[in-house]
Amino acid sequence: PPDPILGVSEAFRADTSPKKINLGVGAYRDDNNKPYVLSCVKQAEQRIASANNDKEYLGITGLPAYNALAAQLAYGEDSLALSQARVVTSQSLSRTGALPIGGEFLSRWYTGNGGKKIYLPAPSELFKRKKHVAFFDVAYQGFASGSPAKDAFAVRLFVADGHNILLAQSFAKNLGLYDERVGLFSIVVADKDEAKRVDSQIKILVRPMYSNPPLSGPRIVKEAPRSETNGRPHNHNAFRIKKPPGKDVRIQERLVPYHLPDWHVLFHGLSPEKVDRLKNEFSVYLTRDGRISIAGITSGNVKYLAEAIHEVTK
Question: Residue ranges of region Disordered (predicted)?
Fold first, then answer.
């Protein structure tokens, strides 16, 4: 069967309707629904192209400077765990690639709780009491509040509370690097000596998976913040989420009459049957669980979309 998310775009491309709308895969778009590349990414690519870089293999765990930047973005520049060298990092193929690294590591070294479902009224306290290990999946850092630091609150809280966590990161969303597959797997451990042992085990896991990761994406991530600071050393505020110029204002004006919130992704509660009607009757494509990527809404199609949703829900 088609992939529940990527299959939406495949069906959209096959549709010949001039009114078709793709609300499936979340990706930056301008108000003409064209792919939008961030200016800091364009500038970073220009500097990289003129730097006469080589094409040598990276090490198994990736580009060290990129790993350090990504870890600081997640754990904080003042992280005690980082300063004590207790964070083991490995560049990954986006967060999709980071998750199996963590999964393989846990399958070998952590017995778990037998797969029991648990309710978490106070997660950090409960994890500590039950001796659980937390594995954070951070795909949208910067999207919730606009601030990467604020969005990393839960990760930093757990580390500050003494947890040895696992973390999967991605720069596909907050820098729009969808095709670069650039991410990071990291794990916080007890001390520097344990970090060396864990680093060795991570390399053993990664080597047969893909040997070593690609280099172009990490170079962009490393250079992009400099584009926001006129070449000065990186500033994590450069990862604040910024919408394509003018689009947010125009869309907001059109959204208000239809009471559609200005979010990156919206779960609206439409049934799978209503989603199918949107596709079959109006050429509006979204996942069957009702997930809408707001990036696919423009000032030119929002009225048609609102009318289509109204028609299938009345």
Answer: 217-238
